[in-house]
Amino acid sequence: MRILKKLLVGGLALVVVLAIVGMLLPREVAVERSIVIDAPASEIYPHVSNLKATTAWSPWLGQDPETKLTFNEVEAGVGAVMEWASENRNVGSGYMEIVEAVENEAVSVALDFGDMGTAKAGWTFDEVDGQTTATWGMVADMGAGPIGRWMGLKMDDWVGADYERGLQNLKALVEGG
C-alpha cells in the first residue's frame, strides 16, 4: 500500500511540474522559412496572391488529392478566400483569407483551423539583381493551457518541413516557366 501511495504522489507531482513548466512556455509560436528563386518578385507574387494559384505548389494538397476546395468571388489580393476540407489529418479543414497584399512585396493571410485554432501567415519578397528571396512565415497562438504550449515546441518541426517542401515546389514552378 505504501508503494502505491508513493507512486500516486510521484505521478501527481510529475503532472503538476509538467503543467507549471508548460505555463512558462511561450504562448505564441513563429515558424519561418526562406528560399532564393531565380526570378523577379513580379513572377512569384501571382502564385501567392491568388489562392487558386497556390494549389499548384501547396505542400498539403499533394497529400490528399481529394481535398475539397472552395473559393469566393475575389480572385486575388485582399478579400480572396479559400476553404478546404479533408479527411487526411495532415491536411484537415480550414479557412484562409488574404488580409493584406502589397504587389510584389508581401501577402498576409488570416488562417482558421476550426478546433485547432487560428494563425497569421505571410509572405515577403526581397528582390536583388533579378533573384528573389521568398520568405514564408506563420505566427500561431498556442492557447492559455500548458498542453498547447508543449505542442508549440514541435510546431517548427511540423510546419517548417511543409513550408520547405512548398517553397521547393514554388521555386520549381516559377523557374520552370
Please, could you describe this protein's structure?
With 177 residues, the chain is of the alpha+beta class. It has one domain: START domain (Alpha-D-Glucose-1,6-Bisphosphate, Chain A, domain 4). The protein contains four helices and seven strands. The chain has helices at residues 2-24, 41-49, 146-152, 155-175; strands at 28-37, 68-71, 81-85, 94-102, 106-112, 118-128, 131-141. Strands 1-7-6-5-4-3-2 form a seven-stranded antiparallel β-sheet, covered by helices on one side. Helix 1 packs across helix 3. The longest helix has 23 residues, at 2-24. The protein is elongated. The termini are far apart.
Q: What's a quick, concise take on this entry?
A:
The protein is α+β, with helices and mostly antiparallel strands and 177 residues long. The chain is built from four helices and seven strands. The chain is 34% helix and 32% strand.
